[in-house]
Amino acid sequence: MFTLSKNSCLSTTLLVSLFVLAISLFFTTSPTFPHRLSLLARQFLPIRSISTSPTMTTYAKELRVAELAVQRATLLTKYVFHEKAKGTLSKDDASPVTIGDFGAQALIIQAIRKNFPQDEIVGEEEAATLRENKELSSKIWTLVKEARLSDATAEEELGGPIPSEEDMLSAIDAGNSAGGAKGRVWALDPIDGTKGFLRGGQYAVCLALMVDEDVKVGVLGCPNLPVDDSASLDAHSGENQTDAEGKGVLFGAVQGQGATSRPLGIGALGKSQPIHMKEVSSIADATFCESVEAAHSSHSDQSQIAQKLGITKPSVRMDSQAKYGSIARGAGDLYLRLPVRKDYQEKIWDHAAGDLIVREAGGEVTDAQGKRLDFGKGRTLRNNKGVVAAPRGVHAQVLEAVKSVLGSK
Ligand SMILES: Nc1ncnc2c1ncn2[C@@H]1O[C@H](COP(=O)(O)O)[C@@H](O)[C@H]1OP(=O)(O)O
Ligand SMILES: [Mg+2]
Ligand SMILES: [Mg+2]
Ligand SMILES: [Mg+2]
């Protein structure tokens, strides 16, 4: 009896243990384990106690800080544009950098460090030259220390002004992250299209957040684009675009939440509205945009691709990621950037924000082979060559023309 009852007790314990093991294995190995756990928890806990903070899941705070920081930086760049001496230097690769580039990078990095101190930042500029050129450094500091949003609450959200010139230099240098595929990495181009900025054409202040190499938040401040989303693309190109009435737009996007535009403004953020790429019913009627600089993308390849697609309208040329913003709001349709120099690696800060904004507005962005842009390979897009951005419905057709033109070379 005793032995029997001990056996039955043992087998009951064994059965219960096996059952518990099976249940825990099912939950812990299932790919939807956290989801199941939260569903389970929801049955036992009051909803409030298990809901995650909205900022954790929606990137609302990241978007807001990015938009305000970009807005504040554009104010500085606009001020610099009207200064006679813009402190223009030529970098090692012969590209220009100005007081505006350095100042905007310092202001944006300061805001990121105040709000998200653990995050990595990949910024285009560095302060080494300024540490040697004290005169230029102090010129930049004179402007940076005065740069404020007109709305005190918004300014406070950014964490306030930079305390000293040394802090300004250290902020600029904090953009020296090597980037990579893990964790939270911001990509910052304080002035994209510095040549456009200097000639009074298009330029953009660009900021994006990648989490584990995926772009989650993208913001583009374009001081010289019309606020009106329906303004024709031709009106966006050329010189002397500055300060005319109705100029200055801020594009923003969060992964899975769509893309928006709003007036750039000078203080509290203006009202935003959703933007969408235009539906292209006949590709021959599409408008395409490309770089002003023939050295940055192949005008001749792009013109052959357009011909192949039956496009007869001339291309619209403009500097910077303003091209991504312009097609995302439906002012243009395609953005083609075919490589000129085989050895040039595109930089992540030249594409991350625009890539997300276009995709969230209903577009597709790939390289010339049809691969998605890979932002997890460090400071450059070394896995990609060229950029093809188009509305989702016609991207495959455009890509086919790209491959055919490049393949025949
Ligand atoms: N050889 C090149 N090919 C492609 N892009 C380049 C090349 N040289 C510089 N760029 C970058 O192209 C961007 C401007 O693009 P766009 O011509 O479309 O306006 C700039 O960020 C510029 O970098 P940098 O900031 O170093 O000048
Ligand atoms: Mg750039
Ligand atoms: Mg730049
Ligand atoms: Mg540059």
From TrEMBL:
Coiled coil: none
Top-level class of the enzyme under EC nomenclature: hydrolase
Assigned EC number: 3.1.3.7
Catalytic activity: 3'-phosphoadenylyl sulfate + H2O = adenosine 5'-phosphosulfate + phosphate; adenosine 2',5'-bisphosphate + H2O = AMP + phosphate; adenosine 3',5'-bisphosphate + H2O = AMP + phosphate
UniProt keyword terms in alphabetical order: Hydrolase, Magnesium, Metal-binding
Stored Gene3D superfamilies: 3.40.190.80, Fructose-1,6-Bisphosphatase, subunit A, domain 1 (3.30.540.10)
Residue positions binding Mg(2+): E124, D189, I191, D192, D350
Domain of life per record: Eukaryota
Keyword Chaperone attributed: no
InterPro entries: DPNP, Inositol_monoP_metal-BS, Inositol_monoP_superfamily, Inositol_monophosphatase-like, Inositol_monophosphatase_CS
GO function term, MF aspect, one: metal ion binding
Required cofactor names: Mg(2+)
Any one of the GO BP annotations: tRNA decay
Family indicated by similarity: Belongs to the inositol monophosphatase superfamily.
Protein name: 3'(2'),5'-bisphosphate nucleotidase
Species of the source: Cryomyces minteri
